[in-house]
């Protein structure tokens, strides 16, 4: 697994904003944290309300990478230097890891042999 959610992503999602992966202008396909919104102020409100002493520096560094692009009637706010993590994928990976841990190595080998026959 090895991926952790950036505090900024956690703050935004805790505020009810839907985060997503985005590749902005000049990023050449690299992906980052993004939010589509009708009101950019919602992003700032979430950050102001969610930041604390433990994550202030990390969130401030992420905010320095903030950019926006127009998406018709909406705006995408994205953070060039902050990776987006698919929380649903992390949950699936965690469930798979839990399932693997429950099976003893001998059982796993037996299951592979059984599957081959």
Domain module tally: 2
Order of helices and strands: HEEHHEEHH
- Structural class call reads alpha+beta
Any idea what the shape is? globular
Residue fraction in strands: 15-25%
* Strand tally: 4
How far is the first residue's CA from the last residue's CA? 31 Å
- Alpha carbon gyration radius: 19 Å
- The helix content, as a percent range, equals 40-55%
Descriptive overview:
The protein is α+β, with helices and mostly antiparallel strands and 117 residues long. It folds into 2 domains: 85 residues, no CATH class; 31 residues, no CATH class. A 4-stranded antiparallel sheet has the order 1-2-4-3. Helix 1 packs across helix 2. The protein is globular, with a radius of gyration of 19 Å. About 8% of the residues have low confidence.
What is the element layout, followed by pairings?
Layout: H1 7-14, E1 19-22, E2 32-37, H2 40-50, H3 56-63, E3 66-71, E4 74-79, H4 87-102, H5 105-116
Antiparallel strand pairs: 1-2, 2-4, 3-4
Helix pairs in contact: 1-2
Which short descriptors sum up this protein?
single chain, alpha+beta, four-stranded antiparallel sheet, 19% strand
Task: Please give a quick description of this structure.
The protein has 5 helices and 4 strands.
């Amino acid at each position: 697994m090895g991926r952790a959610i950036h505090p900024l992503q956690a703050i935004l999602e805790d505020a009810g904003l839907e985060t997503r992966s985005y590749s902005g202008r000049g990023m050449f396909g690299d992906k980052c944290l993004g939010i589509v919104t009708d009101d950019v102020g919602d992003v700032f409100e979430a950050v102001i309300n969610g930041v604390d002493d433990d994550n202030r520096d990390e969130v401030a560094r992420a905010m320095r990478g903030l950019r926006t692009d127009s998406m018709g009637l909406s705006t995408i706010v994205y953070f060039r230097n902050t990776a987006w993590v698919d929380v649903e994928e992390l949950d699936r990976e965690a469930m798979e890891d839990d399932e693997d841990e429950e099976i003893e190595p001998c059982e796993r080998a037996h299951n592979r042999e059984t599957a081959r026959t």
